[in-house]
Amino acid sequence: MATVNAAKEKSRNFDAPGPSQPDRLVLRYCFATIAGPCCKSNSIRHLAVEIKAEAGNGMPDYIYLLENRLSADQQNALRQLREAAREAGTILFLTGDAVRDLTSGHAVRALEVAVHGNALKLKKTIEKLGGKVWGEDEASRALYLCFPGTVRVDLVSTHRVEYPKPGKPVFHPATIQEDLRRRDFTINAMAISLNEGSFGLLMDPMNGAADIESRTLRLVSNYGFLEEPSLLIRATRYIARLGWEMDSKTRTRYTNAREEGVIEHLSVQARRQELEQIGHE
Fold first, then answer.
1. Contacts (Cβ under 8 Å, ≥6 apart) of 147
2. In which region does residue 89 sit, left (phi positive, over 0), alpha (psi from -120 to 50) or beta (all else)?
């Protein structure tokens, strides 16, 4: 543990301001998390009007990608999840790898959908609509689904994470904004609304679209490799699959974490998940 703390101190000292990234349009949602389902829906519709005015011709781009870059089976899976969310009175977003791959032009192999609330409560509705639940995680309140056409979907609850010990996350319910800011790399910290009145709108609080354009792998948190050792494996996997490069700060933190032996704190579950991803790719 002392070794990890020393590594964190090294990372803190290294955190000098770097060159700014290219200016990009960033769309953000601002709705009250304590509001009921009706209020949430009205807030999103109201916000959609404001964002449409700011986005100009930007909004149809992601609608086009959702309608033309996803397979018919993937689109059907998202329709079923949108219906389940409507019945539950909650909202949901396409997140993670799927948004990155849609944006960068890579094939979308699996879907991740983030639900504002407890995803586990949608289990019965999803099964009624034709989805199959092959796994679930009580700690993070996530469901692992399969839809017709062998479409894999990770249905996660929006959350933030604390790390009292390396590789030992503690999950807390959070907003979609907080959820995106706890992600691993900026290219995965983007979300597309799947909600009525704002369908296709992009959220990009960490400027991930700019890093996708420059083919750059950049940590969201300065301590990402130290808190979650599995990111060392994930970074290597992304570089091999996408052919992108780490930015200089991320590269230095990657090297420091390896030298400090942070990988020794890799949990069994995280190792299994990364191996599954390698096998899936």
1. 73, 76, 77, 80, 130, 131, 132, 153
2. left
In order, the DSSP letters of 163-196 are: EEETTEEEEEE--HHHHHHTSSBGGG--EEE-ST
- Contact criterion met (CB below 8 Å) for 190 and 211: no
The torsion of the CA quartet 83, 34, 113, 75, rounded to 10 degrees, works out to: 30
Which distant-in-sequence residues (6+ apart) come within 8 Å of 40 by Cβ?
A: 31, 32, 89, 90, 91, 116
Going by C-alpha positions, the residue among 6, 189, 174 that lies closest to residue 103 is: 189
Q: Which two tokens stand for residue 152?
A: 């894999």
Q: Which of 193, 222, 194 is nearest to 206 (CA)?
A: 222
Give the span between the Cα atoms of 164 and 161, in whole angstroms. 10
Among residues 16, 31, 153, the alpha carbon closest in space to that of 97 is found at: 153
Is residue 172 classed exposed, middle or buried when 0-12, 13-18 and 19+ CB atoms within 10 A define those classes? exposed
The total number of residues written for the chain in this structure: 281
Going residue by residue through the chain (281 aa), what tens digit of pLDDT does each one get?
A: 555 555 555 545 444 444 334 444 344 433 333 334 444 444 444 434 443 443 444 444 899 999 999 999 999 999 999 999 999 999 999 999 999 999 999 999 999 999 999 999 999 999 999 999 999 999 999 999 999 999 999 999 999 999 999 989 999 999 999 999 999 999 999 999 999 999 999 999 999 999 999 999 999 999 999 999 999 999 999 999 899 999 999 999 999 999 999 999 988 877 777 777 766 66
Residue 143 and residue 125: Cα distance in Å, rounded?
12
